[in-house]
Amino acid sequence: MNYLVFKSLHIISVVTWFAGLFYMPRLFVYFAEAETRIPTERKILQDQYKIMQRRLWYGITWPSAIAVLIFGSTLASQFWPITQYPWLVLKLIFVAGLYAYHIFLHSIFNQQQDNNTSFSPMALRIINEISTIFLVAIVFLVVLKNVLSMVYGIVGLFVFVAILLTAIKAYKKIRENEVLNSDQITLDKLKLINNSSDDWKQKLNEEEYQILRMCGTERPFSGEYYLFFEVGLYACAGCGHELFSSETKYNSGSGWPAFYDVVGTENVRLIEDQSIGMKRIEVRCAHCDSHLGHVFEDGPHPTGLRYCINSIALKHHKP
């Protein structure tokens, strides 16, 4: 194969390698953020992130890193002795640093595969930007190819790093402000979740309490909203939090109200349920933690989901 073929393969390998290095830390962030969820929800999320990590790491990132080494070594032989090319020497130093960064990510990968993480989500976001720094440095060197321009490029790199760190700090500040602004909502939510059984018994009637707080199920074909299709929104009977819209309601023939989507994914919580000897996904209100029903993967397009919900867990509101 001639030089241009190896160069093309090298560029393709570099692009796919950087794609893996860019996205892998994002999966680390998602894994770490899942630590704040309740145990059952945390396990579901983290198990899925671990699968995604393995596919990305072993299917794309590692093979690409090896290919870059093979094709890059072949191309480097065209510039021998490399000491005559100062830009190339510095580029190879950055590439060596990139491989060190790759190994560092591999150590984080191993930790999270063992359900451990020693970095906070914010620290992982900063780590995520390191590959960007390497990319800028290497591209400057490859394109400019002279010492003076290389110096300008390095100065520009430091300016870029400073801007990047400033942006990360600004993002962190925005996140902190969002948390502060949501404190009252969170407190209200905690008050609802932490209500005693007696408090809920005073708020709900016997049938509502059995379903919303004791995870019961109403008899099929008996619910008020089973064949009810008036326009409006369906809210949680426990706290009034909006959950479903009449636009996504349909007749599944199951005996319970069915929806193929929620108003917002943040409005419900999905929990693994093995209470009757089979694996199901329970649907709960994200605001007051009340049991609503279950979700199944046999619904219509476009989601393919069927949220099978107890009528007693809902309150319909006209627009």
What is the element string, with H for helices and E for strands?
HHHHHHHHHEEEEEEEEE
Q: Report the sheet with the most strands, covering strand number, pairing sense and barrel closure.
A: 6 strands, antiparallel
Radius of gyration: 27 Å
Bin the helical content.
55-70%
Strand content: 5-15%
Look at the helices and sheets and give the structural class.
alpha+beta
Can you give a write-up of this model?
The protein has 319 residues and is α+β, with helices and mostly antiparallel strands. It folds into 2 domains: 179 residues, no CATH class; 100 residues, Peptide methionine sulfoxide reductase (Metal Binding Protein, Guanine Nucleotide Exchange Factor, Chain A, Beta Complex), CATH 2.170.150. 56% of the residues lie in helices and 12% in strands. The protein contains 9 helices and 9 strands. Strands 3-4-8-7-6-5 form a 6-stranded antiparallel beta sheet. A hairpin with a 5-residue loop joins strand 6 and strand 7. Helix 1 packs parallel to helix 3.
Report a brief summary of the structure:
The protein has 319 residues and is of the alpha+beta class. Helices cover 56% and strands 12% of the residues.
Topology:
Layout: H1 3-33, H2 39-76, H3 86-113, H4 121-128, H5 130-144, H6 147-181, H7 183-193, H8 197-203, H9 206-212, E1 233-236, E2 242-245, E3 249-250, E4 258-259, E5 268-273, E6 280-285, E7 291-296, E8 306-309, E9 314-317
Antiparallel strand pairs: 1-2, 1-9, 3-4, 4-8, 5-6, 6-7, 7-8
Helix pairs in contact: 1-2, 1-3, 1-4, 2-3, 3-5, 5-6
